[in-house]
Design brief:
Blueprint: H1 7-26, H2 40-53, H3 66-75, H4 81-94, H5 98-112, H6 119-137, H7 145-149, H8 156-167, H9 176-184, H10 193-203, H11 209-222
């Protein structure tokens, strides 16, 4: 017969078991990442059609170089592209570098962009980011996400737009249109822009990533509109799994004009 174990050994085991049980009870299940409703083949076909419809999609913010693109995107928050373009045409004619923008000063920049929402804060940010570019990056717009988001007034979406349009990175800049489409279609469901961004980057074939965010923005702006989707003019109506869709017959797959009315 085995001799009974000393009490000190018995006491050391019970707390361990109790601790393990408490840990199991307190552990929360990991939140599952929402999955796309579409197969890889369906995703590929969606973007193939977008590529046929708009072979070379262009952003609608007018700019001269990487710096003016950065400024235009910063100014476009809570404003229309048409409104930003109207204000920046005369501004960029005299200030198309960080040095010129800084020399112009906050008050003068504000006079040019007074018609844009939140113009005071934006004028302050434009001058501050110009100063930061000169001080930290030799007057050049950095080709790096972490460096861009450290600039005044620059968030992740703005940085992704600049990286994509100015430097050709395969980024996904999630604006209100893409956030809506990602969830409405079930293409990349997510509660935040970051979640939708991660979902889209994960499922979109690399061959289409260069223009993917432009295709999605234009689709959301002109077809899959917020209030009333224009399903009869949708080239992916047969693939779309949105509950709101009104037809499963796709629109004819033909190229559209490079630029549509930016005031919509």
């Amino acid at each position: 017969m085995d001799s009974p174990k000393p009490k000190d050994q018995q006491l050391t085991k019970k707390p361990r078991a109790a601790t393990a049980n408490v840990a199991k009870k307190s552990a929360k299940p990991r939140a599952r990442r929402p999955k796309s409703l579409y197969t890889p083949a369906e995703v590929h076909e969606i973007f193939r059609r977008f590529a046929v419809q708009r072979p070379e999609p262009k952003g609608e913010l007018e700019h001269i170089n990487a710096f003016t693109l950065l400024v235009a995107v910063v100014l476009s928050a809570q404003a229309t592209d048409a409104g930003v373009n109207k204000a920046t045409r005369p501004l960029f004619a005299i200030a198309d570098t960080p040095q010129k923008m800084l020399a112009l000063g906050e008050e003068k920049v504000g006079e040019y962009i007074r018609t844009i929402g939140l113009w005071r804060a934006k004028a302050r940010n434009v001058v501050a980011l110009s100063e930061a570019l000169i001080r930290d990056h030799g007057g050049e717009v950095p080709d790096d996400l972490d460096a861009l988001v450290k600039l005044p007034g620059v968030g992740r979406k703005t940085a992704n737009v600049v990286l994509n349009m100015a430097f050709g990175h395969h980024t996904m800049a999630v604006d209100t249109h893409i956030l809506r489409i990602g969830n409405r279609l079930g293409l990349a469901p997510g509660k935040t822009p970051e979640q939708v961004e991660a979902g889209l980057v994960r499922i979109i074939p690399d061959e289409y990533m260069r223009h993917a965010h432009h295709w999605l923005i234009l689709h959301g702006r002109y077809v899959c509109k917020a209030r009333k989707p224009d399903c009869p003019n949708c080239v992916i109506a047969d693939i779309c799994k949105a509950k709101e869709k009104t037809t499963s017959i796709p629109a004819p797959l033909v190229p559209v004009a490079p630029l549509e009315d930016p005031g919509q």
